[in-house]
Amino acid sequence: MRVLGLMALSSVLLGCATQGVSHTELPSYYMAADPQTRLSQYVAKEQPADESLSGFTLLYKGNDALAARLKLIDMADQSLDIQYYIFNTDITGGLIAEHLLKAADRGVRVRILLDDIGSSLEDMKVAVVDQHPNVEVRLYNPLSLRNEWLKSLSTLGEFGRINYRMHNKLMVADNRALITGGRNIGDEYFTLSDVDFQDVDVLGIGSIADAASDSFDNFWNSGIAIPIATLAKQSDAEALASMRATLGSRNLQLQHDPYLKAAARSPFITDMSNGTLNWRWGHAEWFYDDPSKSDPHGDGNETAFLGRRLLEKLRASRSELLLTSAYFVPLETGEDMLLDIHSQGVSISVLTNSLATTDVLAVHSGYAKSRVSLLKGGLNIWELRPIAGQQERASPFLGESLASLHAKTFVFDRKAVFIGSVNLDARSVKLNTEAGVYIEQQAIAEEMVDLFNRWTSDDFAYQVSLNENHDLQWQADGKTWSKEPEAGAFRRFMSWTLGWLPIEGQL
């Protein structure tokens, strides 16, 4: 009765607000690359004769991934376009915010597009950053009611609309360089918390930046990317000055932090500054979902949806697929697709989270229903261990941390890769907007194969298989488990319970 009362009240309060909010701001577009900017000059020195090629380097270490973002921001002379599902106000979020404000001080135009639900930022804090004359912030598909208490009611009343979220992760500098992948902005994505999200980003330069910038504009100018200035009370210059002072003071105190010193000394920074970074040049395509995917009343035209293009690449594979997906919920349709591809002679290996490492129990419950069928069909499955890669992490600066998989990568026939925000689940395919880059480059593919092999070694993962009775078993370090390893009885019970709920399409 209490829930029904809340839903009724929300309907009264929201009224026609369930259609969301809109704005009349004039569109803005990415700036054509200026050959005089530092990034343009850098790319010109590195670019091979074939200007259709793009250069790439992988970022799978947290400190390198943070260092790369700060380096791009500091090198920008013209524009920065930032698009994220989550942007936390923690150490890494504060560092990036301070560097963005300094870039704006240099005259760089900064556009920041954040998902309203994913970021969960206080409007006032976002509005303060928006006060800078060279910074504009927009929220994607925001709740109509902005009061912190009323947001929960707004969520109930607008669920049909706000269930469609922007899961993209993208940074583009001067339309010459970009970073995309699985990482949001938050300490846990950069090995700086008690839970370490293992992830992969890629830094790209050259022609691929044009396509990424075009996709950013498509979202930025969509009717559901709403300027924060129209949603929140106006801030003032004094509030901005206060925020900058707070960020500056906090970041100054952190200069001697061992982790941040390691990030500052990242080989990536040294190599890029010295012009010795090993770029891999190849043909690339930018894949992304059109913002129309977020319209629950749209025409259902999936031609612009990323999932269809990825499916084409999956079905075109001839020998091997290596799939890393933090949230892996194939459902019956996905099972049939993977088993059909495997039946054509393609070896398929999957790495996902174990029950002990997942941060969303309901997702594991959905995935668990597919394990036996996929294993019987001949797929190889690994699940991440909580102790994964302890020796390699920067987190020992803070003490031990538990691992969780957050990467979303695909390796096709050891010749091409996709790196982006897409999980192999219904939410990524049908509900959220996603983005990433497809790269045809053998050296990058081989590096991703090496990373997959390391992440599926006994130090990182359990191999899941069936015993002689076709019951599940988990193996690592010469040990065998007959129950979900390193997951307590209560966690196993909750996962089993959630498995009975008809929510697979939301996972």
Summarize this structure as a short list of keywords or feature phrases.
18-stranded mixed β-sheet, Endonuclease, Chain A, 21% strand, disordered N terminus, 2 domains, 37% helix, alpha+beta, 507 residues, two-stranded parallel ribbon, 19 helices
- Number of E strands: 20
How far apart, in Å, are the first and last alpha carbons? 27 Å
- Tally of DSSP helical segments: 19
How much helicity do the residues have? 25-40%
Strand percent estimate: 15-25%
Low-confidence stretches: 1-19, 394-399
CATH topology term of the largest domain: Endonuclease, Chain A
User: By helix and strand content, what is the structural category?
Assistant: alpha+beta
CATH architecture of the largest domain: 2-Layer Sandwich
Overall pLDDT level: 86
The total number of structural domains is: 2
Organism: Pseudomonas neustonica
Protein name: Phospholipase D family protein
Pfam family, one: PLDc_2
InterPro entries: PLD-like_dom, PLipase_D/transphosphatidylase
Overview of this protein structure:
37% of the residues lie in helices and 21% in strands. The strands form two sheets. The chain has an 18-stranded mixed beta sheet, with helices on both faces. It is globular and about 70 Å long. A hairpin with a 3-residue loop joins strand 15 and strand 16. With 507 residues, the protein is of the alpha+beta class.
